[in-house]
């Protein structure tokens, strides 16, 4: 369960949680006109550190650019706001949710000519698909819903409206007793989970769907690809057919919330040995090692919440 944070960064300053409010006629509520991020802060021996903060803030601004939305703050101000949100709530680990949205009151569809509002919430959050999922794998299904087509709504933008698609996918999966659903793209090839990118391992080669307009360019996806390079493992960005899931030696999903989670079955077909595979395990080890100090952060991905 999420604990309620004491303070939220709202339009440039920290304010008490209950004061960070919008009107019921807020444009973003009616039309999905928001862009947002999910960022994790990990407890480390050197104090709380934000993971890939600059890359997440860059993606927030990229999402805004796609929608011609002007965020009335600099990237540095958002970075500082993220840190302030964590520090002011005395959190050692956190999930950060920066969101930029049209807050205008009125029912016009085109984005109103008013300053975009920005909020940053920080709260405690455990493993998204459960600790058991991280250790033993999760059961997923291929969704009856397809992911957005590239010429409908851009999946490269992390926009509020996109998450109606994700909600349909994950609600259907949970209704049928799965942990998560995986969507195909409009060509019938595998795209991504409701909130995770996907990796498939066969004969020691790692496959993942390409950045072809049908997935979010996940930062955990990128992290795993860089780990693979460091570990001399081959990664191929290729279209993946549904049956390749069933025949995989290993599958794992990646996301800021989900972290690196093995998949033990797809559509009730057991994947590999039906438990966490060796490549997923080594990726997890490298990933969580960044925060325990066992993995040297040669990429400069960690950034302290408090400047020392
Ligand atoms: N795909 C979708 C649809 C997502 O919502 C997320 C979570 N942000 C991801 C992939 C994974 O992205 P990241 O690793 O940057 O969190």
Automatic annotation (TrEMBL):
EC category name: transferase
Keyword terms: Amino-acid biosynthesis, Aminotransferase, Branched-chain amino acid biosynthesis, Pyridoxal phosphate, Transferase
Catalytically driven reaction(s): L-valine + 2-oxoglutarate = 3-methyl-2-oxobutanoate + L-glutamate; L-leucine + 2-oxoglutarate = 4-methyl-2-oxopentanoate + L-glutamate; L-isoleucine + 2-oxoglutarate = (S)-3-methyl-2-oxopentanoate + L-glutamate
GO MF annotations in UniProt: L-isoleucine-2-oxoglutarate transaminase activity; L-leucine-2-oxoglutarate transaminase activity; L-valine-2-oxoglutarate transaminase activity
GO BP, sorted A to Z: aspartate biosynthetic process; isoleucine biosynthetic process; L-leucine biosynthetic process; L-valine biosynthetic process
Documented EC number(s): 2.6.1.42
Pathway: Amino-acid biosynthesis; L-valine biosynthesis; L-valine from pyruvate: step 4/4; Amino-acid biosynthesis; L-isoleucine biosynthesis; L-isoleucine from 2-oxobutanoate: step 4/4; Amino-acid biosynthesis; L-leucine biosynthesis; L-leucine from 3-methyl-2-oxobutanoate: step 4/4
Any one Gene Ontology cellular component term annotated for this protein: cytosol
Pfam families: Aminotran_4
Gene3D superfamilies for this protein: 3.30.470.10, D-amino Acid Aminotransferase, subunit A, domain 2 (3.20.10.10)
Cofactor dependency: pyridoxal 5'-phosphate
Keyword Cell division in annotation: no
Biological role: Acts on leucine, isoleucine and valine.
Family the entry assigns: Belongs to the class-IV pyridoxal-phosphate-dependent aminotransferase family.
Protein name as catalogued: Branched-chain-amino-acid aminotransferase
Organism annotation: Aliikangiella marina
Taxonomic placement: Bacteria, Pseudomonadati, Pseudomonadota, Gammaproteobacteria, Oceanospirillales
């Amino acid at each position: 369960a999420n604990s309620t944070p004491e303070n939220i960064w709202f339009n440039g300053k920290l304010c008490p949680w209950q004061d960070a409010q919008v009107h019921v006629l807020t444009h973003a509520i009616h039309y999905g006109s928001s862009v947002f991020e999910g960022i994790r802060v990990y407890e480390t021996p050197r104090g709380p550190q934000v993971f890939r903060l600059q890359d997440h803030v860059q993606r927030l601004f990229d999402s805004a650019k796609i929608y011609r939305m002007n965020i009335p703050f600099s990237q540095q101000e958002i970075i500082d706001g993220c840190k302030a949100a964590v520090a002011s709530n005395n959190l050692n680990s956190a999930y950060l949710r920066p969101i930029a949205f049209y807050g205008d009151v009125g029912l016009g569809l085109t984005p109103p000519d008013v300053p975009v509002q920005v909020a940053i919430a920080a709260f405690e959050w455990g493993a998204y698909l459960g600790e058991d999922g991280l250790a033993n794998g999760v059961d997923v299904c291929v969704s009856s819903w397809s992911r957005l087509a590239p010429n409908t709504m851009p999946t490269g933008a992390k926009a509020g409206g996109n998450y109606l698609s994700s909600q349909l996918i994950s609600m259907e999966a949970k209704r049928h007793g799965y942990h998560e659903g995986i969507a195909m793209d409009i060509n019938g090839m595998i795209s991504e989970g409701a909130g995770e990118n996907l990796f498939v391992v066969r004969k020691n080669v790692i496959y993942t769907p390409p950045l072809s307009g049908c997935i979010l360019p996940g930062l955990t996806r990128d992290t795993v690809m860089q780990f693979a390079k460091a570990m001399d493992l081959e990664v191929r960005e290729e279209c993946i057919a549904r049956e390749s899931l069933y025949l995989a030696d290993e599958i794992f999903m990646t996301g800021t919330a989900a972290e690196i989670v093995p998949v033990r079955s797809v559509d009730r077909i057991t994947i590999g040995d039906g438990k966490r595979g060796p490549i997923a395990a080594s990726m997890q080890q490298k990933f969580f090692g960044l925060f325990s100090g066992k993995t040297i952060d040669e990429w400069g991905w960690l950034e302290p919440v408090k400047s020392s």
